[in-house]
Write a structure and sequence with these properties.
Length: 136
């Protein structure tokens, strides 16, 4: 049931809010500046996601070369991916949220919260961490 609510939120409520925001900004600054602003945020988002992604990739490679697991880099990579997708989605509210996922200071705060949540879930036994080996 929670998945259905999440899907309704993602595919119905978010676009309606974004459309409302676009209309309000369009009324305030005009249609063409609004379109150009949306295009600019998409391009900037793609650039930032690419730059941050490559930086994280190099850090992960360095950790692997030293025999360490790149746990922080995995969380960083996931946050950058989500932030990039949000920034390339037309709208201003998703752009702000995308910047939160892309900028390192706010990403560090998000990572701390996610790690705390994961540890609580593991301590309660409500989440299982498992993996399987491929059998050919």
């Amino acid at each position: 049931m929670a998945l259905v609510r999440l899907l309704v939120l993602l595919f119905v409520l978010v676009p309606v809010i974004e459309l409302w925001g676009l209309i309000q900004v369009g009324r305030w600054i005009g249609a063409w500046p609004t379109v150009l602003l949306v295009l600019a945020t998409g391009l900037i988002g793609a650039y930032l996601a690419r730059a941050q992604g490559w930086r994280i990739w190099r850090r992960a490679q360095a950790k692997l070369a030293h025999g360490e697991l790149p746990g922080e880099e995995i969380l960083d990579g996931l946050a950058v991916f989500v932030g990039g997708v949000l920034l390339m989605t037309p709208g201003f509210f998703t752009d702000v949220l995308g910047l939160v996922f892309l900028l390192p200071p706010s990403r560090a705060l998000l990572k701390r919260r996610v790690k705390r949540w994961l540890w609580r879930q593991l301590a309660r036994g409500t989440q299982a961490v498992w993996w399987t080996r491929w059998r050919w």
